[in-house]
Amino acid sequence: MIARTLLALWALALVLGPPRAGSAADGLHLVLTPSQKPTDLLATGEEFGKVLAGLIGMPVRVTVASDYAAVIEALRNRTADLAFVHPGGYVLASREAKAVIVARNLWHGKSSFTSRIYVRKGSGITALEELRGKTIAFIDPASSSGYIYPMVLLIERGLVKNRDPKTFFREVVFAGSHDAGMRALLNGHVDSLASFDMAREQYLTDPAERERIVYVAETPPIPEAGIAARGGLDPTIFAKVREALLQIRAPAHAALLKRLYEIDGFAPADDRDYDPVRAAIELLGVRPR
Questions:
Q1: Which numeric CATH code is attached to 21-110+223-284?
Q2: What is the pTM of this model?
């Protein structure tokens, strides 16, 4: 019985042939980084997937990863073909999953941004050094603006020792998303927050709330995030996706892009653009969880 079963499976394998790495005959799977509320992000992501599908001529399925590390894992195990990645996530994905950047986001007309360390205006804290013994919310250990770059800043200022933020801060938490981190700071759950330079404007729509948040430090520029493809994706499909992404821009798609990640569109990207992020990651010894 076992022999007959094995023979049947062998015959079926001959008919089907070997698995085709890089094939996307059933469509593409795009994974989103969960930098905002997952339910809202998924609805917008699915709309974006339909636009992309129309341009490349094949279905695009969209899901939201559980966390930043899950995005890298999906690219590594090839359950995802494409993923929206933040800069640190791309560097880790290129190293751990052989991912390749397809296109780079344009955000507020720029292809770079910074990280800031925010505090409440009424706290009396006016300098980074005054946060010693206080609490901070980072976003995720793999987040460029929410951990990697601010940690490098703290190390270079001589405030954090041995790559351990608890050598400076009394308590360290990870908010999981930028909007959750901003709310935690605003509501007094933490004394400070590491997030990107437009987080206050993006997540606090009430001008009175914005006035309550200021920043005490800012990092050098960080290259913008973008969409990466898993290693081994068919080069023809890769080229189609890149061409399509460069067509998704204002005015036709302005509202969709703003709802998705507050971006303006996409620009050509090269792996070398992320060498400064690689250097920061190496300094911190960041690894996917």
A1: 3.40.190.10
A2: 0.74
